[in-house]
UniProtKB/TrEMBL annotation, chain A:
This is ABC transporter ATP-binding protein. Residues 367-388 are annotated as: Disordered. SUPFAM superfamilies: MOP-like, P-loop containing nucleoside triphosphate hydrolases. PROSITE patterns: ABC_TRANSPORTER_1, ABC_TRANSPORTER_2. One of its GO terms (molecular function) is ATP hydrolysis activity. InterPro entries: AAA+_ATPase, ABC_SmlMolc_Importer, ABC_transporter-like_ATP-bd, ABC_transporter-like_CS, Mo/tungstate-bd_C_term_dom, P-loop_NTPase, PotA_ATP-bd, Transp-assoc_OB_typ2.
TrEMBL record, chain B:
This is ABC transporter permease. The keyword Flavoprotein does not apply. Residues 88-294 form the ABC transmembrane type-1 domain. Keywords: Cell membrane, Membrane, Transmembrane, Transmembrane helix, Transport. It holds the Pfam family BPD_transp_1. One of its GO terms (biological process) is transmembrane transport. It is found in: Cell membrane. PANTHER family: INNER MEMBRANE ABC TRANSPORTER PERMEASE PROTEIN YDCU-RELATED (PTHR42929:SF1), INNER MEMBRANE ABC TRANSPORTER PERMEASE PROTEIN YDCU-RELATED-RELATED (PTHR42929). SUPFAM superfamilies: MetI-like. It comes from Micromonospora carbonacea.
Length: 388, 304
């Protein structure tokens, strides 16, 4: 685990999950999870549906008993503590607003249960924060989905817990409101110093808000790190395609040569800097992000030092800020390339033969199952940042 | 109708003439559906009620053999009340105590079946209803055996000195209240179960997450959300329990008689129809008053 094993410098302390496991029958939903989330940081948990994100949050909140492992807050193991004794609040994926209470009483619920009597100012402040000032007297059933979601947020946030668990708290909001709420959340988090554990399907949200992002797959953490680090240098093929898109070419590597790792893919030879190779021998994926793939019309226009493949444009879709191209290679795989609509350089027509080139310093090598073929993004109708 | 068909709708489009026969039948349909029930109620509820009201105002000096005269004898009411107010009060007292006992037993039972029983849910529900498969009378007679002086229960209670050496259960108010509690419990449990069944456990989790202890969660979330079922259940329990006379008859003595016993004897033994009818109406009015006050209070506080 991390070097921070005691919370002496911070009385409250970090949130640590140690060998946390949850089994439902023979099905392992969370598999030997180990994590340290520093106090006051914004931690985002990303992963496909059903990979165990909600289960992890529920164990932190105390709503699910871990099969084994510890949940530590500072030095204290809270894994066996009843939920109402934990300084942790949750924004539930299903909102779970109390239908018999109005919005005001819903938001005031936590404060009142802790014996605080004068709650009016605080509740009104929270309602203003989530832009529901005039809705205090309404029942949850009289609100839209997005409004209910904001009530759920206010109801948890008002308690200023040590750790706030957010299970897709902004999923039902439109883009504008979501951006607004993201900014508010981030502001509150930095102001109050609450540890946020934020589950989201929105990669852009995770990347813009979080200090640390963890990508989860089948109950395990595949990669954990700063958003830019994960994006620029993913650890596995799953992460490379879950966080943004990647063109992954099936290749064979034969060990490092100097500071580079030479590989062969589909009969051509490429190389990747050794510092960007997760593996240097055997079956590998040669990965390049679509926006790092540039299109030119002839091989002699490829800049010095760049590597390339040739192919033909099979599809071009204009998405405003960029144009997304699909390029079919000679061996039949489709690569995706994004070109910024900067006004420089014209658009490439469908059917044109092109050369797609990249700077090897932007490429990366990932482990590959023997026999696995190219894994390319290929999904033009799904822009970056959309839910996966 | 033909003239109507040419009146333009607000959009300026002439309204399509409605298919007359179908439209007419559609409008009649709700009434047709109402008809059997309404006819039944009229024949077997409204008419007898009216007759009973008339009977309560008959000349009390009449009899079945000499015939009755409708003399608007409103004095029947105070007379009946004066003669039988102890039985009247007992009805409400016994039913009230039985109700409290039934809620104390029935609420946890309904909660356990609805929220915790998992796949045993259906079986447990059947167990709650199963006693209804035998007659009310038979069940009460069975209680007579259970509570009898040489039964095991009385023996046990005497052994642990909860009862004196010649203390008994049968023919005491305790037996009547226990009988009422037992016999009407399913009427309380079933509606309560229905509303607790619908209670989303995630709301209970949310309450726990928001610092509510189990007791507070019950007080603030579970109870208010199950209030409709609790109200329906208590009414379904209390109303028949107040009017019951079998339990007092079989498990008690004339000292435990409730107003139902008096009405029973007025109609079937003493053949004093005016008094029986007056007592019936008094009971009905009293129950309605209690229910009204109850609904007003419960309705303003916790119910959705
Ligand atoms: N009570 C339960 N009993 C059995 N299996 C469960 C239970 N709760 C969750 N699971 C299983 O555990 C896995 C993880 O569920 P979890 O709710 O944590 O997923 P998630 O990552 O939050 O997914 P989503 O993004 O769809 O919300 C799923 O395969 C789910 O079917
Ligand atoms: Mg989930």
């Amino acid at each position: 685990m991390s070097a921070k094993t005691t919370g002496h410098d911070t009385p409250a302390g970090d949130l640590r999950l140690v060998n946390l496991t949850k089994r439902f029958g023979i099905f392992t939903a969370v598999d030997d999870l180990g994590l340290t989330i520093p106090q006051g940081s914004f931690f985002a948990l990303l992963g496909a549906s059903g990979c165990g994100k909600t289960t992890t949050l529920r164990m932190i909140a105390g709503l699910e008993q871990p099969t084994s492992g510890q949940v530590l807050l500072g030095d204290r193991d809270i894994a066996r503590l009843r939920p109402y004794k934990r300084p942790v609040n949750t924004v539930f994926q299903s909102y779970a607003l109390f239908p018999h209470l109005n919005i005001f009483d819903n938001v005031a619920f936590g404060l009142r249960r802790r014996g605080i009597r004068s709650v009016d100012d605080e509740v009104m402040r929270m309602l203003a924060l989530v832009q529901l000032d005039d809705f205090g007297h309404r029942r949850p059933a009289q609100l839209s989905g997005g409004q209910q979601q904001r009530v759920a947020l206010a109801r948890a946030l008002i308690n200023r817990p040590q750790v706030l668990l957010l299970d897709e708290p902004l999923g039902a909001l439109d883009l504008k409101l979501r951006r607004q709420m993201q900014i508010e959340l981030k502001r509150i988090q930095t102001e109050v110093g609450i540890t946020f554990v934020h589950v989201t399907h929105d990669q852009e949200e995770a990347m813009t808000m979080a200090d640390t992002v963890a990508v989860m797959n089948a109950g395990k953490i595949e990669q954990l790190g700063a958003p830019a680090d994960i994006y620029e240098y993913p650890a596995t093929a799953f992460v490379a395609n879950f966080l943004g898109q990647s063109n992954l070419l099936a290749a064979e590597a034969a060990g490092p040569a100097g500071s580079d790792v030479p590989v062969t893919a589909h009969g051509a030879r490429y190389s990747v800097p050794a510092v960007r190779a997760r593996v240097a021998t055997g079956p590998v994926y040669l990965g390049v992000r679509p926006e790092k793939l540039h299109l030119v019309d002839a091989a002699d226009r490829v800049p010095a030092g760049h590597q390339y493949v040739t192919g033909a444009v099979t599809d071009a879709s204009y998405v405003g800020v960029s144009t997304q191209y699909l390029v079919r290679t000679e061996w039949g795989s489709e690569l995706s390339a994004f070109a910024a609509n900067s006004g420089l350089g014209g658009r490439v027509p469908v059917g044109a033969s092109v050369v797609a080139h990249w700077d090897p310093r932007h490429a990366f090598l990932l482990p590959r199952q023997p026999g696995a073929d190219d894994s390319t993004a290929g999904l033009l109708d799904e822009p970056v940042g959309a839910s996966s | 109708m033909t003239a109507l068909a040419h009146v333009p709708t607000p959009t300026g489009q002439p309204a399509a003439p409605p298919p007359l026969p179908r439209g007419g039948r559609r409008r009649l349909l709700p009434y047709l559906l109402l008809l059997p029930g309404a006819a039944w109620l009229l024949l077997f509820f409204a008419v007898p009620l009216f007759q009973l009201a008339a009977a309560s105002l008959y000349d009390p000096s009449g009899s079945l053999s000499t015939g009755y005269a409708l003399t608007w004898a409103f004095g029947n009411y105070p007379d009946a009340l004066q003669a039988y107010w102890p039985q009247f009060g007992r009805s409400f007292l016994y039913a009230g105590i039985a109700l409290v006992l039934a809620v104390l037993m029935g609420y946890p039972l309904a909660y356990a079946i609805a929220q915790k029983a998992g796949r045993w849910k259906s079986l447990l529900l059947v167990c709650v209803v199963a006693p209804m498969f035998t007659s009310f009378l038979v069940r009460t007679l069975a209680w007579k055996t259970i509570l009898s002086d040489n039964g095991w229960l009385v023996g046990l209670l005497r052994d642990v000195h909860l009862l004196g050496p010649d203390g008994r259960l049968l023919a005491t108010p305790v037996a009547v209240v226990l009988g009422l509690t037992y016999n009407f419990l399913p009427f309380l449990v079933l509606p309560l179960y229905a509303s607790l069944e619908r209670l989303d456990y995630r709301l209970l989790e949310a309450a726990g997450d928001l610092y509510a202890s189990p007791v507070q969660t019950f007080r603030r979330v579970t109870l208010p959300l199950s209030m409709p079922g609790l109200i329906a259940g208590t009414l379904l329990f209390f109303i028949p329990a107040t009017g019951d006379y079998i339990n007092a008859e079989l498990l008690g003595t004339p000292n435990e008689y409730m107003v139902g016993n008096v009405i029973d004897s007025a109609f079937l033994v003493r053949l004093d129809y005016p008094q029986g009818a007056a007592l019936s109406f008094l009971l009905m009015a009293a129950i309605l008053a209690v229910v009204f006050v109850y609904l007003r209070r419960a309705g303003t506080e916790e119910v959705l």
